[in-house]
Every structure is written in structure tokens, then in C-alpha cells.
């Protein structure tokens, strides 16, 4: 059999082998994959991809690699279902990164999540300011679930009309002890004003501030370490 015929057969076999394995394992959608699932999918694809273009590897070897890897994943799936304690090892645990409106710095640090990443995730949930958020949970798939504060979660019609007329974005002025000068310039303020606002909250040094945010018409939101 020529090279193209061999590649055709191996590709055809690899496609349906992966399809069968994925159906048996009952994998979630791509957007819901955990880190372990993602790595497993990459290795799964590499096993088949490399085998197809290796002249020394035939269908038997591809089948052995695919079904062995699939069997290992299947065992882990069953194992995590029967023994709950193992779920955190393979699937991870949700982590509360904002609790009662306060950033949980140690939790963020443990999960390798910085302010900019968190703000991006919050904006995807239509939360454009940390001040709007009562609770935020970092899920095992890397997304964030958000519970807004009562006023923001279910405003009355009058509140909604008021918000629609006065929509303002939150500007990050301090991130991990560092002043964001571009944002400070954007709101036409200087560091002297910023320091004065911090002093009103009995904060003497910018370096002591983990995060500070400004919204027009509202008091400066600042949280220390």
C-alpha cells in the first residue's frame, strides 16, 4: 500500500477511535474543560497525529495508544465520581476571589490570577467595576461566576433608567501598589489628589494599596493588603 493510502486508513481509523473514546468518556464542552481535561485532549491529539505521520507506526500501535490513554481517562472519571476527595486533584476547586465586595488577594495569588485578568473575566459577565460585585467565584474551567450587589443585580425600573443615564466605567488607579498613571490622566487627576483621597480613608501610602478604583461621582474604592 502506498504512503497516501496508509495515511488515509490511519487517519480514518484515528478519527473514529477518538470519536468513540470521547463519547464513552462523556466529555464536557470545550468551554467547560478543566486544566486536566485540556492537557488530556492535547496529548490525545498528539498521540494520533504523530502516529499517523510515522511510517513505523501502524493501525495496531495507534489503536493501542488511543485506547490505553482512553482507558486511563475513563478510570480517572470513575475514580473521581466514586471518591470525592480526588476531584480536587484532577478537576480543581472553585475559588472565591471576591468575598462580600472584597478582593481575596491570597486566593488570587494561589490561583495565579492578577487584577487585569480578573477585570477581563468580570467584564465578560457585564461587571465593569469591582464595586458592583458582591461575590466572584473562579471556576475550575477558568471562567468567573459573578453575583452582583443587590442594587446592581436586580434594579427597579427607576434605578435602571437612572443607571442608563449615568453609566460610568471604573478606572483602576492603583494595581498591586503601583499607580496606573494613564488612567489617572484619563480622569484628569494627579497623584496629589490620589494621595489625599487615600488619606480620607486613613491610608498613608500608595504602596499599601492592593487595588483602587475610581468611578465618577463616587468615593474612591481602595483596598489595602
UniProtKB/TrEMBL annotation:
Topology term for the membrane: Multi-pass membrane protein
Presence of keyword GTP-binding: no
Alphabetized UniProt keyword annotations: Cell membrane, Membrane, Transmembrane, Transmembrane helix
InterPro entries: DUF421 (IPR007353), UPF0702_alpha/beta_dom_sf (IPR023090), YetF_N (IPR048454)
Chief location category: membrane
Every YetF C-terminal domain range: 81-215
Subcellular localization(s) per the UniProt record: Cell membrane
TM stretches of this protein: 6-26, 33-53, 59-79
Ranges of residues in domain YetF-like N-terminal transmembrane: 5-78
Family that this chain belongs to: Belongs to the UPF0702 family.
Name of protein: Uncharacterized membrane protein YcaP (DUF421 family)
